[in-house]
Amino acid sequence: MPTLLVNNQLSHLSFEKFSPDQRLADWVQCYWKIGASGAQTAQFFDEKLYPDAGASLTIDFSHDTPIVSFTFNRHTLAKTFSNHDSLLSIRFAPTGAYHLLGIALHDLAEESYLLGYDFTPRWYSSLIACVEKMHNSPLTSQLYLLEQWLLNQAISNKLAKSSTLQVIQKLIQHKNSATDISKELGLTRRTLERRLKKEAGVSPGQLQQFYRLKTARALLSNSHASVTDIALQCGYYDHAHFTHSFLNFTFETPQQYRKRKILSILT
């Protein structure tokens, strides 16, 4: 059964995050839900969705008929949520959507796709049958049913750990360059890049950028380190290089991001 993870962010949207079964841990980062608050007046909140080479399969229970969508973004996206939303989502790890669901991410544009309208994958009917059971069920039952559906996908695909996961971990940890990793695996760099793009939808450089900035965002939010120290810790040449990259990626300077996060904690 998925376990609730501690998370104080987005409390205004009744946000909760849950860990996946260990058998799915290589392919699923977490499940998350936004629950309708029950307030009579709808309030709307603009949030940012930062890319990390993961993808999301989201079920919207806010309507009489649930809506299922799939999203993969390579750039930061602005998204508006309401306190009347009732959403449950699978957040896939890099390569997770490819191996569990057979979705080639490199072919997707920067938008949400409605399943059954924009595209209908082979597993669509089994997911809809699962969603119908989930509708109007308690959250614990919804999570259980959704995870069982994912486990069935893993079994039907005879899922085994991909060597691409090793590549991703080394790139994320900045232990090796893409050239060094390709040599270690007996591949050309071009072959490694094609494999990563096919399974994760990104290039090695994009993946490393995502995770350097993810680390930077965490340090800006949760530490008192100076922006210069954070820049050097995350592998940037200097304060100016870091600020330029951060601004292009998040549409805020590091100082603006830190101030906004501190204010959200205090209010």
Structural class: alpha+beta
The total count of strands amounts to 9
What's the helix-strand series?
EEEEEEEEHEHHHHHHHHH
What spatial form do the alpha-carbon principal axes imply?
Answer: globular
Main pleated-sheet profile: 7 strands, antiparallel
Q: Beta fraction of the residues?
A: 15-25%
What is the average of the pLDDT values?
89
Radius of gyration equals: 19 Å
Distance between the termini: 33 Å
* Uncertain runs: none
Map the helices and strands:
Elements: E1 3-5, E2 15-19, E3 28-34, E4 44-49, E5 55-60, E6 67-71, E7 77-82, E8 87-92, H1 96-101, E9 112-114, H2 124-134, H3 139-156, H4 163-172, H5 178-184, H6 189-200, H7 204-222, H8 227-233, H9 239-250, H10 254-266
Antiparallel strand pairs: 1-2, 2-3, 3-8, 4-7, 5-6, 5-8, 6-9
Helix pairs in contact: 2-3, 5-6, 8-9
Keywords: DNA-binding, Transcription, Transcription regulation
InterPro entries: DUF6597, Homeodomain-like_sf, HTH_AraC
Organism: Pseudoalteromonas neustonica
